[in-house]
Amino acid sequence: MKQVESLRSFGNIKLLADSRRMEILQLLMAAPATLTQLARTMRQSPAWVRHHILLLESAQLVERTEIRKTGKVTEKFYRAKADALLLREVILPKTKKPAVIFAGSHDLALEGMAEHLQKHVTLLSLPIGSLDGLVNLRQGLCQISGAHLLDTENGEYNIPFVRHLFPDRAVVIVTLAHRTQGLMLAKGNPKGLKKVADILRPKIRFVSRNAGSGTRLWLDTELSKLKLPAATVKPLDRVVKTHSEAAALIAADKADAAIGLQAAAYRYDLDFIPLFEERYDLVLPRENEKPLRPLLDHLQTAKFRTGLRALRGYSSAHSGEQIPH
Question: Residue 3: exposed, middle, or buried by beta-carbon count in 10 A (0-12, 13-18, 19+)?
Answer without folding.
Answer: exposed
